[in-house]
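Training component of the fellowship. As part of building independent skills, the fellow (R.M.) carried out the full modelling exercise for a liganded target. The chosen ligand was alpha-D-galactopyranose. The inputs are recorded below so that the supervisory panel can assess the work.
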Amino acid sequence: MTHQCSEKQSSEQLGSEQQGLAQQDLVKSLFVQQFASAAELVCHAPGRVNLIGDHTDYNDGFVFPAAINFGTTIAAAKREDAVVNVYAHDCDQQSNEFNLSEVAFDSQMMWSNYVKGTLLALMKTYPEIKGANLVVTGNVPQGAGLSSSASFEIAILKTFAELYQLDLDGIKAALMGQKAENNFVGCNCGIMDQLISAMGQKNHAMLLDCKDLSFEDAPIPSNLALFIVNSNVKRGLVDSEYNLRREQCEQVAQHFGKSALREVSIEQLNAAKEQLEPVLFRRARHVISENARAVATLTALKNNDIASISVAMKESHNSLRDDFQVTTKEMDGLVEIIDGVIGNAGGVRMTGGGFGGCVVALVPRAMVEELTDVVNTAYPQQFGLEPSIYLCTATQGAFR
Ligand code: GLA
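Fellow's submitted model of the complex:
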């Protein structure tokens, strides 16, 4: 879920279009340094922010993410043999070399497992691919809940699809990225992060039905800014707690004889309250109510109905805090601080897997300056931590 290498970026370094171009130039010149020849191509895949619908994807539910202008960029060239040689500029400038015929998990260099797992998944469909020389850099803050890993996986898949002219589409690529995490890295994540990184649409968020992977793009109103704040709380126990939440959801689905919580209604759940352990009841209540909020947000966004979005985001945060229990006091505090400024003129909630990381807000552009000042003052006062603020735009996915 996070590819665990050191973070060097500051918030000022992140995000702008210029930075995107700078990243391209950087990987190209690093490629020449590393491999003494020019790269054949450069590929990029974005990270994401989820507007609403968290911990629903692995329950066959609904999510509402947008791809953002932070991502992973790779310069690459084909090789004649089956060797993959990766230089990861942001991971302590480490290099990793392996042969596609004998791919093994590396517990020392965790980041390399995202490349390995992804290529193993790719080779199931395209066994004919050969190796490559790769230089990777990224500006998605790691461990912040903005999907640095998914953007890495999708960037790798896009790179190999281009190098070897594969007829790979974004949905298949997303499923391969997810498989890499589930079967190789060891995180039982859902499909949201990879799918939006592959299929996001510029200036739009996407309501994605994780049951059949159908989706609808929804324009983000131009009067609203995508305001993301990193609590800068180091995330701990993320994968184990995440996997536990997923098991708990599956237990409740099983109780009802269903394949996923998507198939259980709130009425059915309420009627079975006495038969379920209280904690399992609460987990399921979050998922079922969150699905309804995600779907309702599509209509609200289309109608520029900010007041309804505001309510839905608030309820979502409270549900993730109280029923699903994946927030931290710092994330709750940030939400309160932001809510205190924007009220029902915008919306705010935690975003992503939780246990630290970011909150996302939809903020009227006219309020951005004031909000920035308040967050920069109040958050350190209350929690002794500096926030990082990312003013984002919604960008195009790698396969769109
Ligand atoms: C992580 C996972 C996603 C999703 C979110 C929570 O980002 O990778 O699949 O489950 O958490 O919504």
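The panel noted the following from the submitted structure. Residues 253 and 261 are 5 Å apart (CA to CA). Confidence is low (pLDDT under 50) at residues 6-13.
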